[in-house]
Amino acid sequence: MTGIATVYAVFADEAEAARIGRAMVEAGLAACVNILAPCRSIYRWQGAIEEATEIPALFKTRADRAEALIAAIAAAHSYDVPAAIAWPIAAAHGPYESWVSQEVS
């Protein structure tokens, strides 16, 4: 296991993903964020099946900062219950792991 993690989150649109992504990097909570292509989400919300186009993003951070990053994403997010989860990274290229660790405060 490495000392880094990826936090996955989805956003209402690309502007929100970019705004929050930039804010997390500027705050030192993430070394970088990859904003991905739109995806189609099907989910149950308040008893009804809903469909939406959302923008997924992958935030790279230190494992010990993942919870703080998730909390900051949730605080800035437009959704009442945003999806924001951390995946531990089992293996990584050493220089990349070092770079992520150095960039996250």
TrEMBL record:
Record family assignment: Belongs to the CutA family.
Protein name: Divalent-cation tolerance protein CutA
Spans through the membrane: none
Molecular function as annotated in GO: copper ion binding
Organism, as annotated: Edaphosphingomonas haloaromaticamans
GO biological process, one term: response to metal ion
Pfam families assigned to the protein according to its UniProt record, in alphabetical order: CutA1
